Amino acid sequence: MPPSEAGRERPPGAQRGNEARETMLLAWSVWEVLARNWAMVLIALTITSLVVVPTLVILKYVRISLNIMRTTKPPLARDPRDYEPLIGEPVSFPAYDGLRLQGMLIRANPRVARRGLILFAHEFCADMHSCARYCRPLQAVGYDILTFDFRGHGQSECPPDYTPRQWVTDRELDDMRGAVEFAAGWCEEHAWPVEFGVFGISRGACAALLIAAEDPRIRVLVADGAFSTDTTIEYFMKRWAYIFAKVRIVYENHPPAFWRFLRWSMMHFARREFRCRFPSVRKAVRRMTPRPILFIHGEKDSYLPVEQSRRLYALAGQPKQLWVAPDARHNQAVIVHPDLYALLTVTFFDRHLARRPVPAGAADWLREGGSPPAAGPAAARAAG
């Protein structure tokens, strides 16, 4: 290296010192700018904290909610085969989206006059045969029963891109549309009025309420264990918030607007996660043309509190009834109170579908705010 160039080289220590001075000058310049514009800086930090922190909280709740939707399963009333099955004619029909569904048409007791047709929608993880637990008294007094397997249950097909869960989606609504069209065609074939009742259990009750909101041919509904997915997920988020929230005073004092926005955000992410829509049952009930609805819910349902049915009952038009079954858990009213369950369901369909006089002991409870009659042998005789 030429001597002239070597003389211009700086010692390593001097070079590091110059870099340190430049860093200090830059930091001082930044500090001067911040000091002169402290108000703007404070506003920017405040806005950032108001946006970023709630966003992180929302995303954390959403992740937990999606996990609940993936994994949570409701308890079944009993073993799926704890009843004597009803025998019917196998039928097959397409869902609204073309998927092939399997069902069964159970004809009414031939020894009595026919009273009408009831479409049965089973609960999650059950199948068409579970109608025997709920509909045997109805078949005995003269109702035809159309029951079927939702997609992914029993003998019905299931698309490879869809996993059935306890939450009713647009796919189950397509199944109900197909079943309603089959029921309507069957009534027309026999020259009967194209009107029928729907009897739904849990998720099936949700699907029944959704289809009734768009189809006036459904004249009367019995909904046992019904709920709306959006408000139910909100309930689960509040119930389990203490598990993942770090500061108790925070999760106990979220304003109502926070939970409403969280509910909207969660449903948006759920549509993307599961590639389906989750229609709101509460919105469907609110816009439904008034028709008779009997809501049933177990008093001791620890999975879906009775408040879920109370909310839907409050939104429904008249005539409507709500029976909170004492000492019954999720979907167990028919097991804990079999005679009274038979009396109330038969009486309700008789009055509003078959248009028959109701038993004297059941007249009062059909009025707004009335209480169901006591269970016992008299109830069983009235149901028959």
CATH architect. name of the largest domain: 3-Layer(aba) Sandwich
Order of helices and strands: HHHEEEHEHEHEHHHHEHEHHH
> Which overall shape is indicated by the principal axes computed on the Cα atoms?
elongated
What kind of oligomer do you see? Answer: single chain
Name of the top-level CATH class of the largest domain = Alpha Beta
Question: In terms of topology, how is this protein built?
Answer:
Layout: H1 3-8, H2 12-36, H3 38-71, E1 89-94, E2 100-106, E3 116-121, H4 131-141, E4 143-148, H5 170-189, E5 196-201, H6 203-212, E6 218-224, H7 229-244, H8 248-251, H9 256-274, H10 281-287, E7 293-298, H11 307-315, E8 320-325, H12 333-336, H13 338-354, H14 377-383
Parallel strand pairs: 3-4, 3-5, 5-6, 6-7, 7-8
Antiparallel strand pairs: 1-2, 2-4
Helix pairs in contact: 3-7, 3-9, 4-13, 5-6, 7-9, 13-14
Protein architecture, described:
The protein is of the alpha/beta class and 384 residues long. It has 3 domains: 1-34; 37-71 and 229-279; 89-227 and 280-383, Rossmann fold (3-Layer(aba) Sandwich). The chain is built from 14 helices and 8 strands. It has helices at residues 3-8, 12-36, 38-71, 131-141, 170-189, 203-212, 229-244, 248-251, 256-274, 281-287, 307-315, 333-336, 338-354, 377-383, and strands at 89-94, 100-106, 116-121, 143-148, 196-201, 218-224, 293-298, 320-325. An 8-stranded mixed sheet has the order 1-2-4-3-5-6-7-8, with helices on both faces. α4 links the parallel β3 (116-121) and β4. It is elongated and about 110 Å long. The relative contact order is 0.11. The model is unreliable at 375-384 (pLDDT under 50).
